[in-house]
Amino acid sequence: MACTTNYKLGMNAKLYYGDCEDVLADLLEAANVKEVSLSLSANEVDITTRDNDGWVATAKSTRVLELTFKVQLNAGANVVADAMRDNFLGDDLMEFCALTGDKDTSDSEGPKFTGSVFSLTRNEGSEEAITYDITVKPSGTVTWVEVVAS
Questions:
Q1: What pTM did the predictor assign?
Q2: 27 secondary structure, DSSP code
Q3: What's the alpha-carbon Rg for the chain, to the nearest Å?
Q4: Element (H, E) at 85
Q5: Residue 129 and residue 72 in contact, taking contact as beta carbons nearer than 8 Å
Q6: Is 73 helix (H, G, I), strand (E, B) or coil?
Q7: Apex 35 CA angle, 32 and 39, nearest 5
Q8: 147 Cβ contact list (under 8 Å, min separation 6)
Q9: Hey, which bits of the chain come out as E strands?
Q10: Is 82 helix (H, G, I), strand (E, B) or coil?
Q11: Strand pairing class (94-99; 14-19)
Q12: Does the domain formed by 10-48+57-146 have CATH 2.30.110?
C-alpha cells in the first residue's frame, strides 16, 4: 500500500499573470505572492410571488469573482509588484489565472480571466517584509481551466 496524501496544499497552488489575452502557456508565475484567496459568489434576484405561501424565493443572477493576494517586496527587482502597480495606475487590462497547481501539471484547475487591479494597499509593518495587498476583478468572461494529462 502506497502512502500518499489525498489533499492539495495551498503552497503548491500557482498564480499566473501576463498581457491581455495571453494563453495559459505564455503567462508568468507570480512566485513572490502569499495568502491568495479566490472568492466566487452570485448576486441575488427576488423572485417571490404570492404563490410562495409567504416564503421569499431567490434566484442567482450575475456571478462575481474577486481574487486577492499579497505580493512581498524583495530587495532588487520586484517584477510582480511593479506589474500590479502599473496596472492599477494605468488603464490596461491583464490576464490572470489562479490554479490549484502548476499550469503544466495534470489535475490543476481554476479561473482564467482578463481583468484589472482594483485595489493596491502597501503594508509596512515594523517586524514584517513590506507587502502589497492586491484585489483583482475580471473585466469580462471568466473561463474555468482544467489541466489534463497530455
A1: 0.89
A2: P
A3: 19
A4: helix 79-89
A5: yes
A6: coil
A7: 125
A8: 99, 101, 103, 104, 105, 106, 107, 108, 109
A9: 14-19, 28-29, 33-46, 58-72, 94-99, 109-123, 131-146
A10: helix
A11: antiparallel
A12: yes
CA dist., res. 101 & res. 80, Å (int): 19
How far apart CA 79 and CA 27 sit, in angstroms, is 13
**Would you state the torsion angle of the CA atoms of residues 135, 11, 113, 104, taken in this order, to the nearest 10 degrees?**
160
Confidence bin at 6 (pLDDT 50/70/90)? confident
What pLDDT, in 10s, does the model give residues 8-59? 889 999 999 999 989 999 999 999 999 999 999 999 999 999 999 999 999 9
Rounded CA separation 134/86 (Å): 12
Q: What is the mean pLDDT of residues 58-79?
A: 93
